[in-house]
Amino acid sequence: MLFFALAGLVKAQSNSVEQKLTAVRVPNFSEISYNAILIIPQLYRENKEDTINQVISYINKNFGSAAFLEPYIILGQIKKRAFREEIRNFASGPQWALSSAYTDSQFYEANIITYYLDWYKTNFGIRANNRYSLYIRNAYGDYIDFIAENAKLLLHTPGLSPVEKWLLNYLLHPDARMLQELA
Question: Which of 5, 57, 151, 165 is deepest in the core (most CB within 10 A)?
């Protein structure tokens, strides 16, 4: 009888601890980014660009720049004909110039661009990466397919600059050799 009473007490205490540990919900980057990659393509198809901009602003405000957002931001700038050979960092505000010749102060900026593009290249084949669970592979795979499909459509836009063409081709077929061109 004492055993059952102690077992019940331990279970009640563990439930109490679990309740205390889960009482306050704090969103984390993994959950937010997963939800964003699911809803951005959907919102895009529904022509809800303002809502997508709110998603991007929320992420940048609460977590800083996110590599998975940059390809979408690049596509948006090219589509709006607002691309100026730079990627805007919403979190801290600097402009990153895409250039093969840069000063020491631009070294960091060029490496940031390379980081985002390398993230895209690395995750382009995520569906085949068994290191991630199936739901992650499918969600990110669908998002990257969405980016690549839009890059392919935008390649037919008349008057694209050489950098815009380079970026769209990269988003369609990321290649490590292309990244070396930025160095």
Answer: 151
- Per-residue pLDDT averaged across 49-64, rounded? 93
| Range with lowest mean pLDDT among 18-22, 74-78, 120-124, 158-162 | 18-22
For tokens 């070294």, the residue is 107
| Separation CA 94–CA 143 (nearest Å) | 26
Q: Give the C-alpha separation, 134 to 140, whole Å.
A: 10
Q: Which residues contact 3 (CB under 8 A, 6 or more apart)?
A: none
Whether residue 65 contacts residue 89, with contact meaning beta carbons closer than 8 Å, is answered with: yes
Nearest to 167 by CA among 53, 85, 44, 52: 85
- Which amino acid, one-letter code, is at 37? I
Considering only CA atoms, which of 128, 125, 98, 92 is closest in space to residue 114? 98
CA–CA dist 74, 70 (Å, integer): 6
Q: Are 161 and 98 in contact (CB under 8 A)?
A: no
Q: What is the model's pLDDT at position 75?
A: 93
Task: Give the list of residues 6+ apart from residue 182 with CB closer than 8 angstroms, or none.
Answer: 98, 100, 110, 113, 114, 117
Q: Rg of the Cα trace of the chain?
A: 22
Contact partners, residue 178, CB within 8 Å, separation at least 6 = 166, 169, 170
pTM of the model: 0.74
Helix (H) and strand (E) counts for the chain? 8, 2
